[in-house]
Write the structure tokens for this entry.
Amino acid sequence: MDVTALDNDIILLAHGDGGALTHDLITGLFQKHFTGQSLKLLTDAALLPHLEGHMAFTTDSFVVDPLFFPGGNIGELAVYGTVNDLAVSGACPRYLAVAFVIEEGLPLATLEKVVQAMAAACRETKIEIVAGDTKVVPKGQVDKLFITTTGLGAMLPGVDLGYHRLQPGDMVLVNGQLGQHALTIMASRYNLDLGGNIQSDCAPLAGIISELLQQIPGVKLMRDLTRGGLATAVKEIALSAQIDIYLDEEHIPVTPAVQAAADILGLDPLYLANEGKFLAVIAPENKKAALEVLKAYPLGKQAAIIGEVHTGEGNAFLRTAWGGTKFLDLLAGAPLPRLC
């Protein structure tokens, strides 16, 4: 992306999909002007060691359409999404600030239903809303309801996560089946019957991640697999750590219903967004113990080792079921806008 002549460029929907254009926008524009050291790492949450107790800090916006969908809603998504960003950074979520931008004409009953869902999600995850803001804009200036959250968490003792820890031979794992959230949003928005009872995996990950970090010292890095999906996250990790990552297609958990729907729609499950899945890179000697920890939780029943780290220069590859090797890159284009 050429950011030297912004008056000749425009923002596309694809700039918000977590793929190649998002990466270009962040690195070519935002990081050009916002030069803080924490921001350079491009992690799910910024680690703030200069604050007492070593804190993690993150912010996110939620603009999903529709507001309610099978398996979740924008209220749960806003809380869980922020909790998950803190959790994969090695933090225990503590406090949340929330801002609402509301379209004139939104039924109060709809707003209350969203707020009730957020309150229940906060109780479930033991995070407290401590500040907020509300703006109402004229009809047509926003689509029903947008929510922005800012989360603060305390780092778990002894946790050291980062690209600097990755080494050849490290294993890549995920906690479960991929692609459900994106397909659920697409089906709900466009009234598609995809079959297979597909619903969003929207869920809080702090509990299962905390247990993994406390029991497995060999956890080296984690990522929340939201926009851009697994493939984009793996490519970003490879670029940041300047290593290569190989994934094994046969070991990546995808339900037959998701695979069939993705095939019909011409989508790749590896690039579909999730809202209850994370990736972890672990030392090879810890792979068996890590799977045992994850499989003890409902959110980790389908956990699997899906790849490994190699010496390299920032590439990501998929070993296919047919014996070939496919190059994985950042998500390009906008196959499914407004899914978070």
In short: The CA atoms of residues 29 and 321 lie 39 Å apart. The first strand starts at residue 46 and ends at 48. The domain at 163-328 is CATH 3.90.650.10 (Phosphoribosyl-aminoimidazole Synthetase; Chain A, domain 2). The two ends are 24 Å apart (CA to CA).
